[in-house]
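Case study 2.
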Amino acid sequence: MKPTPNKILIVLAFIAIYVIWGSTYFLNKIAVSELPPFMLASIRFMSAGTLAFIIAKSIGLDIKVSKKQFKNTAIAGFLFLTVGNGFVVWALKHVDSGFAALEISAQPLVVLILLRILEGKKIKLMSFIGVLLGILGIYLLVSQQTLVAKENSLSGILVIFLCMASWAYASIFVSKASLPSNFFVNSAYQMLIGGALLMLLSLAVGEQWSFPTQWSGKVQLAMGALIIFGSIVAFTSFNYLLRVVSPEKVATSTYVNPIIALFLGWFFLDEYVSLQSVIAAAVLLTGVYFINTKKTIMIFSRFSHRIAKKYRENM
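Prediction:
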């Protein structure tokens, strides 16, 4: 049964996906300044997944899944979290948090291109303009000499592109795959599996693990916020919104998240925001708007509805 829309909850949920998701880049940047990236991401998602299972059991949700559903959640967890998020955390050791968020805002562009390549979906005229603007925005963003001159910054930029491709392919995959009907249980499996795979990756590359008691106070707070707010509250808010408002409205977080991330990075971390980055942001987000706007693009809209349908199930 679809929940009755509650205006207050809707507003709070939008605040969550706008502000919390936008702040996760800032929080990850703080934590990765002291912690190994894959260990950081592993602890975040394994902790969040465990908490999600505890919550699911406490409210009487059935956490049993079929072998096929488990396999699909494992694939989704690997693509979304192990690669799509874990390597972004690695990249944050080499690029600014605001820059990473802005680069990732091109995600709808990558999804659209993959839909064209994998499913032969035609790109409408206005969407094609959006793709061109997106490519121009990305070029303006990554062509800054002061940026690419930094040590390992180019590697960070390329790794973020890999993460976007992984996230985009995962989005296409979950829109068709058989997954647990309850989105909360589904996300719990994905977080736990993705976190476990990140732990194996962390151990494989020889990262040095440590106890939370050994972390600084700011890193402890950042990790707590990532687990509770970034991995549980915001994700739940996202899926709640998919059930009560249109996917196009939920997609507006694409425009807000990088602005939040840029501001937090500039204000708290003294990250430099150049005029070219501002211009790149304007061009890139305009391109994303052309791709997402309901009147000019039906491919992405149908795709969004297809994903939303997967999660519009009873809790």
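Confidence is low (pLDDT under 50) at residues 296-301.
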